[in-house]
Amino acid sequence: MGILDDIFGSEKKAYKARPQEPLPSNLRETQSPISMSVRFLPLRLAARKDNRLDMIVRITNETAEKQLISFEARVPQREMMGFDPTVVSKQYQKKLGQVEPKASAEFAVTIHGTSQTKPGNYPVDVTAYVHYIDYNKVMNFVKRKVSLRVV
Fold first, then answer.
1. What is the domain range of residue 108?
2. pTM for the whole thing?
3. Which of 41, 50, 87, 107 has the fewest beta carbons closer than 10 A?
């Protein structure tokens, strides 16, 4: 009945054997109004060199009406990479405007490395926002964490 029983599994818990319960009526699953795909060209950034790569972003409007969309990306604060050649800028924002129904917007975001960029895998946070009326109000968003490889 204690913590060791949980670790060694001497007792089956009722909550582990419980089947999947349906969602309550006041909660419902919703489909996101946009989809986002991210890829890198070239696939990786070279370590300890002044170079760059392009992050190709494609955002698709999945609804039957126009959507006001914006995009934001962030790289780690303490790492020697950024969105400008001096790697000072760690955040990138782009306003895509109204995207037609079932249409896509594709653009490239350049990520720069320096002679002090260390090898490893770095998380890049990418977020696409759906706005209401103007860019101050957010209706929905899609957030992902993609891994940038530096070798």
1. 35-150
2. 0.79
3. 41
